[in-house]
UniProtKB/TrEMBL annotation:
Chain ranges of the ABC transporter domain: 23-251
GO MF entry, a single one: ABC-type transporter activity
CDD domains xrefs: ABC_KpsT_Wzt
Family: Belongs to the ABC transporter superfamily.
Protein name: ABC transporter ATP-binding protein
Top-level taxonomic group: Bacteria
InterPro entries registered for this protein in UniProt: AAA+_ATPase (IPR003593), ABC_transporter-like_ATP-bd (IPR003439), ABC_transpr_TagH-like (IPR015860), Bact_Polysacc_Export_ATP-bd (IPR050683), P-loop_NTPase (IPR027417)
GO CC aspect terms: membrane
Keywords assigned by UniProt, alphabetized: ATP-binding, Nucleotide-binding, Transport
Organism: Lentzea aerocolonigenes
Length: 266
């Protein structure tokens, strides 16, 4: 059974090369984490006193303003950041999909990049060999797959990366927002694959600004605000509190409720 537990966790970033002395005074803007100081070094308190328990079947959307701590939380949940204070326990293999370009080498072919990116996301060579034809067909890149990646347009790279990402079997799938940033026609095609990917993931946390995306893939949500968990619960309730209106009322979707089964909210 996969799970992620976090107890009273904080993540600080000390900034050793901050320019202004006035930074040492506690400052708080509209966006971003709190800037404080520890001795003489300014620190950004990106996450503060986070406690969470995510179990198998969780489908969690992550919302919040710029700098609220979503990406930092995803990295904490991935085990990439250790908490500065508090504890975390991750049970299961994490597939972190934060940047579609990570793990891609411009000098090698599309085919080779499919393999490398798959290995990076926790698949074995054998598993990737079994998937490469399916991924190739999905990307519609044809003979380009034999060309070095540096000859691809941005959209072509995204096709390749999405093809690989949607082919994996993740125990814990952590998605940052970039995944939604492809052209509409290709996204429509990728959506079904994304849906299948989410359905076979043990646990999903998905940072995204699109209500439609969140409604399609998640049933609960966490609202991050200035490094804190401001609200954690049913997706619709959290989105309504965060936005100040119920976005489900304006949504043009074939179904009103999220289509995927999960832990049923809290
Ligand atoms: N590597 C880093 N070094 C210093 N500060 C950082 C670092 N990463 C994030 N921060 C700070 O931590 C806070 C939270 O940033 P984070 O990227 O987690 O926010 P976010 O909610 O993902 O924002 P966005 O929606 O704009 O992507 C911000 O104040 C940011 O300045």
């Amino acid at each position: 059974m996969v799970s992620i537990d976090v107890w009273n966790a904080s993540v600080d970033f000390p900034i050793f090369d901050a320019k202004s002395r006035s930074l040492k005074k506690l400052a708080l803007g509209k966006v971003g984490g709190k800037i404080g100081s520890e001795g003489r070094v300014p620190i950004i308190e990106a996450l503060h006193d986070i406690s969470l328990s995510l179990k198998e079947g969780s489908r969690v959307g992550l919302v919040g303003h710029n700098g609220a701590g979503k990406s930092t939380l995803l990295r904490l949940l991935a085990g990439i950041y250790e908490p500065t204070r508090g504890h975390s326990r991750i049970i299961g293999k994490v597939a972190p999909v934060f940047d579609l370009g990570v793990g891609m080498d411009p000098e090698i072919s599309g085919y080779e990049n499919i393999m490398i990116r798959g290995l990076y996301l926790g698949m074995t060579r054998k598993q990737m060999e079994a998937r490469v034809d399916d991924i190739s067909a999905f990307t519609e890149l044809g003979d380009y797959l034999q060309m070095p990646l540096r000859t691809y347009s941005t959209g072509m790279r995204v096709r390749l990366a999405l093809g690989v990402v949607t082919s994996i079997n993740p125990e814990i799938l952590l998605l940052d927002e970039g995944i939604g940033a492809v052209d509409a026609a290709f996204m429509a095609k990728a959506r079904d694959r994304l849906k299948d990917l989410v359905a076979r993931s043990g646990l999903l946390v998905f940072a995204n600004h699109s209500d439609e995306f969140l409604a399609e893939f998640c049933d609960t949500a966490i609202w991050m605000d200035e490094g804190h968990v401001k609200m954690h619960g049913d997706l619709r309730e959290v989105l309504t509190a965060y936005k100040g209106y119920d976005p489900f009322e304006r949504m043009h979707m074939p179904h009103e409720a999220p289509v995927l089964s999960g832990n049923g909210g809290e």
